[in-house]
Amino acid sequence: MSVPFARDLNLMLCHRCKYACPVADFPQACPRCTAPLHDRKPEAISRTWALMLAALVFYVPANVLPIMRTQALQHDSTTTILGSVVDLWQGGAWDIAVIIFVASVGVPVTKFLALGLLLITVQRGDRRSQRERTQLYRVLELIGYWSMLDVFVAALLTALVQFGALGSIEPRPGILFFGLVVILTMMATLSFDPRLIWDTGRPND
Predict the structure, then answer these.
(1) For the whole model, what pTM was predicted?
(2) Confidence at residue 43, expressed as pLDDT on a 0 to 100 scale
């Protein structure tokens, strides 16, 4: 026995407050929060593609440009994301190096691959592993916020390690690009409508 769609029951889910609205009574706005109602998120696929590709473009300078400049007495150096991971590993802080690597490289690359997989399978009308793909989307929502860990570390170090004449740490342009990558991937995840996974054989947008 197949489970009916909300549209088959003449219901429409509000994107803001998640209220199941009777379409016949409230065809244009949610009766609880007055937000505009849509059967599916408007232009979800094209918007998600645009945001993800923009994030992918910014991800290149985020890894190439330095994220921090360290000044300490006679020592003056700049470091990239991967460079900071190598420095931490060689300095014996392998646990912090692993955390930074996962947050800075593992999470963004995983989000790019997972979002690309979801978009391609939805556009192809793939019927396989619909439940697993929905769970994959929920995991993307959950891990997205941890991508900001690198930005938080740089901000924390900049605030704490200020020794005046002895030394200082300054953020560099790479951290700005990485922050943009995080924001854009989070927006791309939120723009995608997971209900499209179950709309096989129905119009997607």
Answers:
(1) 0.76
(2) 86
